[in-house]
Structures are given as structure tokens and as C-alpha cells.
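EI: anyone free to look at a 593-residue chain?
SC: sure, send it
EI:
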Amino acid sequence: MFFIRMMNDMKLRKKMTLTFISVAVLPLLLCGLFLTGKLREAVIKDAFMQASNNVERVQNRTEELIKVPLDISYRLTNDNRMKMVASQKYDSYIEVIQAYREYTGIRDYLQLYKEISGIRVYVPNPGALNNWEFIQPDERITTAGWYKEAIEQKGLAGWNLIKDERYNADYLSLIRSFSVNSPGRKGVLVINVNKRQLNSILNQESFPTLIVDNRNQIVASNEAELFGKNLSEIHADENILFQQEGSYNTLINGKASKVVIANLTPQNSWNGLRIISVFSVSEITRDANQVIWLGGVVITASLIFAALLIYASASLLSRRLLRLSKHMTQVGAGSWETYLHIDGKDEVGLLSREFNALVSSVNHLVQEVQETNRQKNLVEQRQNEIKFKMLASQINPHFLFNSLESIRMEAHIRQQDDIAKAVWQLSALLRSSLEAGNDKIPLRKELEQVCCYLDLQKFRYEDRLEYRLMVDPDLEEILVPPLIIQPLVENSIVHGLDNQAEGAVIEVKVKKILEGVRVIVCDNGAGFTDDRLVLVQAELAASVHEQEVQRIGLRNVNDRLVLLYGTSSALHIESKPGKGTCIQFFIPGGETK
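SC: here you go
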């Protein structure tokens, strides 16, 4: 409820902006963050899979490469001729040179296998010479760690980064001790792995990839500046220095990185190698970050443009609504002539047009109500006129009815029943005239009053007056204005019978027609001359508002009919001199209680 009330109290501009932020910006931002995280995860996962595959590929190819020096070491350590050349006692240098020249096994291997780049045999033999194939180990060599390990491992192969004295360069080398022909004497075989072959394996990898020995010396790398360094020199996590096969998160040069390690331990070796692939998370996600950054810029620009568009649209809409509100205020103040012009075919434009139509309709209705009230006042005025004009004087009704009742009773006592009946009819006629209000009455009551009036007049004129009422039985309950037929009958008597010695016949007809009810009052009296008929019709056709207040008879009936039902219900008079007069009017609808 609080949220709804807050939204209802908020300005339209702020409401649309808040709605845009809620339904567009926030979901888009959340989706962007979610998709960005997923994209980074996917990139890192793909990079990790690629690094793992690269390490596995390097492991397999390196294993194939070092199988060659390993196989050669088996052959040489079992080559008795090599052992003899290395350990036999020589009497002269010529004999040594001759023996070295005749033994071509080492040179043959170097020519046949491109996987190796050098073979050295270290055997202590005071009479021998150094020819870069057979070397007399001095104290520097015999005290070296790799030499001692080779002697101690008793024929097992080892793999270390060793300097080749001939080229004064470090090589990944196979180290292996072997027994010579003299008891208790041992030699060490060193075979250099071809550096170019090894680097060609690593140079195909997209991530920094290293091969390190058991002393964490980098024996090969696709980054040349790292060759020969120790892992600790590149600021790697100390735990990585001793981690075995697997994948790890670490910091290298202060950057978050992932490390994939695979072990390579050849057969019959006391140590092995480790293949290490390293990739920086920031470098891997750099392209993705660029895409994300570019997408963020595009989205931000789009959101700013959309926000400006929403703001402009909201401002335009709010201004149009404020104009509508101001015009509504004017209408509320009673200015019904106001007109609102708002361009556009949208809802606000439609609302403005509907507002104009509503104001016009209300204005029209107000005018109609005012006109109806004027007509109602005129009807009441005409109704009161005909009631009081019929009395001819301001006689107290109570005194009048008591007096008439006394006369009727006296006539009845004297057995003058016709006089008593006439007095009763006069009393009923006056009572119904005085009690007539502004509401409509059933046709039946109106006809009863007409009959009372005609019977009273018949008492006066006796046989000179005849009348007939012809009414459809199903029309007796329709509602008509009071005193709407009696004045017409009175007019027929006044203008018909009074001017004709032989008497008159009056007919009242009430007929059902398609549109309503037709009422006709006819007499066979003197009728109107043409000039008189034109004058009467002109007076009846004059505007109700232009007539004088004091009107009775035909004009009073006509005025009330026009005010109540319209000009189509006005009196219609047909008359010929000496042939009588017919007056008719129309009541639409035939309304009943």
C-alpha cells in the first residue's frame, strides 16, 4: 500500500523515469554483470582447457624426444668397445688418438639422430686425452651435484640442465653412470638433448610454457629470456616451486595467474621433468574485457539516449496533461465555452477531443436543462392560469364547496333531483379544477371532468346540446396533462352552441396511432371565417416566450402542448363557416403509470 501510494503521489516525469530505470536499466545492468561474469568464466575455462591440452601435447612430444637419448644411453652403457676406449691404459698419445679415431659410435649417433646435440663420456683415465667425446673429469666436475647423483644412482638415468664445456652453453642432458672394465671404476655418460628440437615443441604454444628439472631450473621455454633461470627468479609462488601435477592459482609478477603442471618421468630415471604452462587471467580476459567495455559503452550510451528520450516524452506528456488540467479547472469554475486544442492522435489527443466533446455536451445539456426549467415554469404558469381563470374570482374553496353542498341538499329535499345533480356536477368540476396539479393524470380522469362539464352544460341547454365520447378502451390509463381537453370542449360550446339556435353536437375522439395518441374535438357550430381562422392560427404559432402572461383557452392548451411535447403536438384547427370546427392534437408515446 505504501508503494502504491508513493507511486500515485509521484509526478509523471519522475514516475516514468523510475519505471524506466526499474524495468530497463536495472535488469540490463544485472544481466550485463551476470553475462560478463559468465563470459569471463567461459574465457578462463577455455584458456585452462587449452593450457591443459597444450601441456599434454608438450608432455607427449617431449617424451618422444627424450626417448631417443634414453635409448642411446642404453646402447652406449652396454657398448663394451666404448667402455674399453674410455678405460683402457694407453702407453702413448698416439695410441689414444688412434683408439679415439677408430671408435666412431658416438659420432655415428650424432649423425643419425637429430634429437641429440652432443655426447660426452666422463671416465677417470690418466693416460687418456680429452677430445670432447671422452673427457677426463677434473675436481670441478667430480664435485658437481649432477655427477655425484649419477654415481650414486648406479645406472639410473637423470635429467638436468648441465653446461657443455665444448660450447660453453647449458643443455638439458641425460646423465647416467656406467661401470667400466676396471673393477670399482665408474664413468658418467652425458647426452645433450637438441635445444632446437626442444624449443620447437614449446614455440608452438600460445601460452608461456616451461620445462623445469628437479632443481627448478628452466631447461626449455618458449620465452627465450627465461631459459636457464630458476623458477624462484620469476617471482612465482613458492608453493608452485614444489607442486606436482595439477592446476593452481598463483601470482606471477603481481598478476593473478593460472598454472597447469604435468610431470614427465622417463623410464629408469631417478628424477624427471615438469612441464609448466602459465597464463595471466588479465591477459586472457583482455579481449573479453575489451568486448565488455565496448558493450558497456554502447549500452551506457543507449541508456543515456533512452533516458533523455523518456524524459523528453514525459515532459511533453506532462505539459499536455497540465494544459488539460488547467482547462478542466476552468470548466469546473463554470467556463463552459472553453476549448482545448492538443495535437496528436495518441491517448492524450484522444482524451482532449473527448474532453472537448464532453464540455460541449455538458454545455448543451445545461442549456437544455435551463430551457426545460423555463418550459416547466411556463407550463406551471399556464396550468395555474387556467385553474384560476375558471374560478373567475378569489372565492374561498372551502366556503364555495360547503355552499354548493347546502344548495344540492336543499334541492334534493325538495325533490328537485335535476338541480341537485347539476349542483353536484358543478361541485365536482370545480373540485377537480382546483385539485389539478402539475403532474400528468390518466386520460380517464380527464374525460370524467369533461363529462361533468358537458353534463352541467347540458343541464343548461337541455336538448340543444348533444355530445359523444369515442375512446379506445386501452387508452384510458395513458397519462395526459390536466385540463387539456376540457378547454377545447368549452371553446366548442362557446363558439358553437351560443351562436346557433338549433343546438349543437360535440364529439370527443381519442384514437391510438402508430406514433402515440390522437385527440380530436369536433362540433357542428358556426365555425371560423377564413380571416378569423388565419388570425387564430397565427396567434397559436407565435413563440411561447413572446406571448403575454394572461392567456387562457386555446392558446393556454397549445402552449402547454408545445412546451411538453414539442411543436409536433401543437393544436391543429380545421373550420368552415356554418359547418363547425375540429381541433386536434397529438400526444407522443402513449405513456402510462
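EI: The chain is about 50% helix and 20% strand.
SC: 👍
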